[in-house]
Amino acid sequence: MGQGSSCWGCYQSLIDNHLGLATILPAIEIKYWQAVVDYKLHHLEAYEDKSIVVGFYEGMARTEEDVHLLKLLRQKCQILVSLGSCSCFGSVAGLANISDIEECLTTKFRENKTVSGGKVPLVNLPKIEPVVRPNSDYVDFDVYLPGCPPTSKLIAAAINHLLTGEPLDLPPHTVCHYCAREKKETPISEILRPFTGHADPDRCLLEQGYICVGASTWGICEGQCVNKGTTCRGCFGPPPPIMSDHGAASISMLGTYAPIEPEKLLEQVKDPLGTFYRFDYATSHLGRMRIKREDAKMAKEES
Ligand code: SF4
Ligand code: SF4
Ligand code: SF4
Description:
Elements: E1 2-3, H1 9-15, H2 21-24, H3 41-46, E2 52-58, H4 64-76, E3 77-83, H5 85-89, H6 91-94, H7 101-110, E4 143-145, H8 152-164, H9 175-178, H10 246-257, H11 262-268, H12 272-276, H13 285-302
Parallel strand pairs: 1-2, 2-3, 3-4
The structure holds iron/sulfur cluster (3 copies).
Residues 175-176, 179, 181, 183, 204-206, 212, 214-215, 226, 232 line the site of one iron/sulfur cluster.
């Protein structure tokens, strides 16, 4: 179990299986898990190649250390699972690619009023990669398990599948399929912020003007947010093929629901990148342009 730069929410979701773990844990032998078991990196490095049956990687590879761990897991594991939307698509952390690394450091340390001294820490820290690259640029994965985080039920089902070979049912439906709200196919005349007014609890949130990307998002979470009263932000990414551009699909979906002039629409959607590319900016076509720009800059510096 490897952890790159992440919030640990995906592994927390695994642990949230509580007593469900009682059937899983006796069937496995944990060979490495930074925050849980006292193995060090050199233990992982010493294992024979492909001697670990299954590895999970949570998070994205923002530091040199993350990249090393990711490549090492690929080398040591027969099956490598990309766990969570950070690992699959870059997720929220991938939005850092909107800025360059110096701008990120300034926001986080130099001009952050809650950090005393305003200095960028430099001691005993791994080197930060200049840009968030999708993990799949570094290694091939055998399984992608998206979600921010993937649900506890889904992780348990995936592990059970890997242990027993029992079929894993992952229907390709979008979140709308699981949403109990009524859709009347009425166009939107105005985009509302999430805090505006009181949404009708029985009607489609998108048709009421709240941006819900359930129609472009894989519904293997079974629509847990929309059925509890809030919009779908798209954390499971697109339905299969899951590496298609979820952000672009979400914008196109909104276009079919909201016959509003593009300029007006842009005025009303306050944070387009954070709204439509919250989870997959790093893997999107738009995000790829940013990565290519960084590559060109590095190539120029090296020449
Ligand atoms: S996918 Fe979400 S829950 Fe998982 S590590 Fe990333 S931010 Fe945390
Ligand atoms: S767009 Fe959102 S609120 Fe509307 S039906 Fe789909 S999931 Fe439900
Ligand atoms: S409803 Fe949308 S935001 Fe909520 S868990 Fe499912 S995919 Fe993620």
